[in-house]
Amino acid sequence: DIQMTQSPSSVSASVGDRVTITCRASQDIDNWLAWYQQKPGQAPKLLIHAASTLQSGFPSRISGRGSGRHFTLIINSLQPEDFATYYCQQANSFPLTFGGGTKVEIK
Amino acid sequence: EVQLVESGGGLVKTGGSLRLSCAASGFSFSNAWMNWVRQAPGKGLEWVGRIKRKSEGGTTDYAAPVKGRFAISRDDSKSILYLQMNSLKIEDAAVYYCTTSTARSHWFSFWGQGTLATVSS
Predict the structure, then answer these.
(1) What pLDDT shows up at residue B104?
(2) A20 vs A11: CA distance, rounded Å
(3) What letter would DSSP give residue B30?
């Protein structure tokens, strides 16, 4: 099974800050990576797929990079609506696996 | 508009069974790969299993913790996805989400609101 390691597990940031979340795969997954955003009491939403393609409806201050084993999610100029938990997920092979999540909290 | 509406959650004792349903609308259900993803209270996301479309055999695949106990099926005539959960354990307690994916890309484009399964001893 492919293990996905996300860091940090939580980050405190202020509105306007830049936040970077890292996701590492235990083996090469090319660009078969997705990111999800989950707010309390809600289902997750697909945020980015294919490592860097932003889903419609999300602002361009959010971006994804990486391929192979190392991926990053970057949120520039953090806004109040960005405070949430973010998960990465490898879509390269079954069983599909998620990272442990990163909670972005208000400082 | 894509809609996925789960139902069937509830309280069950260890060793018991539950059948979850997911009613789909707003897309071609018969052409979709469908998945179940779960989230234990306060924890992260865990893929449970998936079923291919009938044209690809409707085959299923499961995560190791549920293999042999859970079964996914689909009724394309009603656009409903099912998850039969047997021999339930405490660690199966979670919100269960129904999600869509495709044959080409195994990320989850759409999610239902989830249904809570609680398992007690």
Answers:
(1) 84
(2) 9
(3) G
Mutate to test the interface with A, among B3, B22, B45, B66 (most CBs of A within 10 A): B45
The answer to whether B38 touches B20, Cβ cutoff 8 Å, is: no
Tell me which residue in B35, B45, B50 faces A44 most closely, judged by beta carbons: B45
Mean pLDDT of A1-13: 97
3-state secondary structure (DSSP) of residue A15: coil
Residues in a beta bridge with A37 = A45, A86
**Chain A residues touching B64 at Cβ < 8 A:** 1, 95
Note whether A43 contacts B107, CB cutoff 8 Å.
no
Question: Rounded distance, CA B13 to CA A105, Å?
Answer: 36
pLDDT at res. B78: 98
Closest to B84 in 3D by CA, of B62, B100, B52, B109:
B62
pLDDT, mean of each 10-residue run, chain B (121 residues) = 97 98 97 97 97 95 98 98 98 97 90 98 92
